[in-house]
Write a structure and sequence with these properties.
By secondary structure, this protein is mainly alpha-helical. It contains 20 helices and 6 strands. Helix 1 packs antiparallel against helix 5, helix 3 crosses helix 4 and helix 13 runs parallel beside helix 15.
Length: 524
């Protein structure tokens, strides 16, 4: 009788978890899709849209265009465009799929480490709300942090459950993170390596089969990208210069300018620190008890590892100098804290504290970053003024167009863009575009590729950079190989990125409308 009741309870639990998985799936999709159609920040919103289109036309990162951000998003977006056609929906689905994978995996992770399924569900839902909806469109920083978090979770399960496959997956996902963006993955690789060595020493393990699985995961991940490069004739030298050496020089400059004041390092991340407090109390409680049980030692090891990871995520966030995106880590740390407080500390006030921080942070950052779109610089914008972007092209049907550049007159901005579009369509000569509105190449069906993935003061090396001549040679070689006659800039203050490459006697400049400038190239 007892066995039958146990089986019934297990079946009920399985049914409950299945319902949770279904709810998490749809919640993650719907939130990302909704906010992916709400507002535009041109320089960030369109870069992967265009790079996916470039790969679709057989133009590849590092080979055909200079790129200091990872190729993974370019190829993922290419795959989605190939399967579902080139549209805003298939673009936003990219972010929605990643958000869904993250949320489902987080629920799976919390269940694996034996957190109560109800709490696991709540924390997974919170992460799905705070992760990708802040942009709603693919963004290298989001991919990088998300894959780092998945790698971290796999490592914890590998320790907690002694399953070698999770060590394999941990290093595989850290490679995916690195090929999205160099940080924070580069720092997490270092932390994982140190943690593995310490783990072996701490538990006096003489076998290294799990370490072998960790190495094999990394080898597989790197091999995937090497195969992609090989099949598409992407020079490894170009990859090293554009993605490793030049960004390292940028990192040195940014490190010199980092400001570790109270506002930057403490105040803006305060809820992450609050989320860590229960874990810190549990850590000292375990140390105080001085038990030597293997399970408790493993828990202590995991707690120390988890408490170390915010240093990497916060430091990486400070280096990027973007709007903060790592707030979705708060429910993750609260979930870990919830698990170990219930297991070791068992103080109700700590559970109440966790619930309080959870509710406040989820509400605050959802309103600020999702609803008010702070990450996209739209916090003071009246979204009632937004215009359906279908009037630009059917590919953007239902996209609520409003940008920080024209917050009060979005229709005027669209009129400028449509006027520019018509001028560009009439020009049948080989041409490239330099713009933050990178969807223009798609809708005018331009088959030439700009030699730079995007144009800002980081992506384009300054003249004083030791990599400038290599950049200039690369740029000019792509202009020559494509027989480019005209270069158009769309937007404000974009001509400077041409002037840094071409001498002023090598082109004629003509203003075509409010935002469109034509540079006709001459033989130099």
């Amino acid at each position: 009788m007892q066995q039958k009741k146990l089986i019934q309870n297990l079946n009920k639990l399985k049914d409950k978890k299945f319902f949770f998985y279904i709810f998490i799936f749809f919640n993650s999709l719907i939130f990302t899709l909704y906010y992916g159609y709400r507002g535009i920040f041109p320089i960030d919103s369109f870069v992967i849209f265009n790079s996916g289109y470039n790969v679709l036309n057989n133009f590849h990162p590092f080979k055909d265009y200079w790129s200091i951000t990872g190729p993974l998003l370019d190829y993922l977006q290419f795959a989605l465009f190939l399967m579902f056609d080139v549209s805003w929906l298939s673009y936003v689905m990219h972010a929605a799929f990643i958000n869904t994978i993250l949320a489902i995996f987080i629920f799976y992770f919390f269940n694996k480490i034996k957190l109560n399924p109800n709490f696991s569900f709540i924390y997974a839902i919170a992460i799905s709300i705070l992760a990708y909806p802040s942009t709603g469109t693919p963004f290298v920083d989001h991919h990088a942090v998300i894959f780092c978090l998945v790698s971290t979770c796999c490592f914890i399960i590998g320790i907690n459950r002694e399953r070698k496959k999770y060590w394999f997956l941990s290093s595989l996902f850290i490679v995916f993170s690195f090929f999205s963006k160099q940080i924070p993955s580069a720092y997490l690789i270092f932390l994982l390596s140190i943690s593995i060595i310490f783990y072996k020493i701490y538990f006096k393990e003489k076998h290294f089969i799990d370490l072998l699985f960790f190495i094999l995961g990394g080898i597989l991940g790197i091999s995937i990208f090497l195969i992609i490069f090989f099949l598409n004739d992407v020079p490894i030298k170009n990859f090293l210069i554009q993605y490793i050496f030049y960004p390292m020089s940028l990192g040195d400059n940014r490190l010199d300018k980092l400001n570790f004041d109270f506002k930057n390092t403490i105040s803006q991340f305060k809820f992450i620190y609050f989320a860590l407090m229960p874990l810190i109390l549990v850590f000292f409680s375990i140390i105080k008890n001085k038990r030597n049980a293997t399970e408790q030692k493993k828990d202590l090891f995991v707690i120390v590892f988890v408490l170390t990871t915010p240093l990497i995520f916060i430091y990486g966030q400070l280096l990027t100098k973007n709007q903060v995106l790592i707030f979705f880590l708060i429910p993750f740390y609260l979930g870990i804290g919830n698990l170990y407080v219930s297991k070791y500390y068992k103080k109700k006030y700590l559970i109440f504290f966790i619930i309080f921080i959870f509710c406040i942070s989820l509400t605050k950052y959802h309103i600020r970053f999702n609803h008010n779109k702070k990450f996209m610089e739209l916090v003071n914008v009246d979204f009632n003024l937004a215009v359906d972007a279908k009037i630009i092209d059917d590919k953007f049907s239902n996209l609520k167009w409003i940008t920080p550049e024209y917050p009060e007159t979005p229709l005027q901005e669209i009129n400028y863009l449509n006027e520019a579009k018509n001028i560009l369509i009439k020009d049948k000569t080989p041409k490239i575009l330099i713009t933050d509105y990178q969807f223009l190449s798609v809708i005018i069906k331009n088959k030439n590729v700009s030699p730079n993935k995007w144009y800002d003061d980081l992506s384009v090396p300054p003249k004083e950079s030791k990599f400038f001549e290599q950049y200039k040679d690369f740029y000019l070689s792509k202009i020559k190989s494509q027989k480019i006659k005209n270069i158009y800039t769309v937007g404000l203050d974009k001509e400077k990125y041409i002037k840094v490459v071409f001498d002023k006697n090598c082109y004629d400049l003509k203003k075509m409308n409010k935002i469109l400038t034509k540079l006709s190239l001459k033989t130099c």
